């Protein structure tokens, strides 16, 4: 089963089931992750910065393409509410702008 390692959450490893978005996997692992629009792909608050394994993700969704084209989603970012880890593992981190105040982040 693919895994997402969240670097700035002390290297927390999150198993990502097939056909499961990263946001659902993070929630199943008990990790709070910003998602202002409720996981509908209408904002970019749930984005993850992908440090390794970008090729292991599935294709960009329509929402991700829209934000990429408007410059609101960088090449190394994905929306956790939209993307799936198709195979292999990936390492990512929570962007500074969307860190939650009650969570403890590592460097």
TrEMBL record:
CDD domains: fer2
Transmembrane segments: none
Molecular function per GO: iron-sulfur cluster binding
UniProt name for this protein: 2Fe-2S ferredoxin-type domain-containing protein
Highest taxon listed in the record's lineage: Bacteria
Every 2Fe-2S ferredoxin-type domain range: 1-98
């Amino acid at each position: 089963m693919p895994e997402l390692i969240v670097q700035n959450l002390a290297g927390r490893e999150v198993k990502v089931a097939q056909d499961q978005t990263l946001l659902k996997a993070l929630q199943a692992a008990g990790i709070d992750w910003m998602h202002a629009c409720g996981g509908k792909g209408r904002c970019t608050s749930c984005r993850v910065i992908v440090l390794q394994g970008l090729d292991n993700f599935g294709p960009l969704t329509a929402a991700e393409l829209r934000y990429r084209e408007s410059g609101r989603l960088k090449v190394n970012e994905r929306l956790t509410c939209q993307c799936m880890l198709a195979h292999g593992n990936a390492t990512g981190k929570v962007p500074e702008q969307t860190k939650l105040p009650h969570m403890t982040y590592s460097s």
